[in-house]
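Hello,

Our lab assistant flagged a job as stuck in the queue for most of the afternoon. It eventually completed. Since we weren't sure the result was trustworthy after the delay, we are filing this so someone can double-check. Below is the sequence as submitted and the structure that was eventually returned. Let us know if re-running is recommended.
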Amino acid sequence: GGAGARGRTPGGWVGMGGGRGREPAAGGPRLGRVVRRKGWRSVEGYVAAVGREWFVVVSVIDGLYDGHVLLRDKDVRALKKPHSDPALSQRFLELEGRWPPAAPHLLDLHDTRSVAFTAGSVTRSLSVSGEARRAGWFFVGDIHRITARHLMLLPLTADGQPAAKPRRLRLIDLTRLVLWDPRVEQLAQLRS
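-- returned structure --
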């Protein structure tokens, strides 16, 4: 598996959820905050599945569902206590029919190309980020095509329509993908 957090992979965080693969955690899912590289945004939620290079966090912000966030294992530095109230987060997820937290079964978390390819089969629109380079970048769009080295993304316009020309993003630069982000879903619903 990936080295992440200097040997402390998300699957090794007892009780956080998921374990390596898709087995349920002993004692049930637990809310935590995934701390990534210095200067990068932390992600709060439940680890739902762990692959060789990537893992899935069912993200919550202030207890509310905020999408399924796919993160690279090698960018993880630590797991900390959550800011949100675990009981409130669980209750909100129960009310939305999202309890217990789970990853989509079709996701392949083996490597970046597999993650991008299977993410496109799970949802039409998603957000992608690359934080490792100087300024970093963030795009919302539909996966148009995937090559051996690139993700071709059709960015969504303000009216929810995909742009005519795809944006070419290097797979090696992807650090975060978000499936079912509530804001992206609302934007995508504007399509006629």
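-- support follow-up --
The delay was a queue issue, not a problem with the job. The result is valid. The CA atoms of residues 24 and 98 lie 15 Å apart. The two ends are 43 Å apart (CA to CA).
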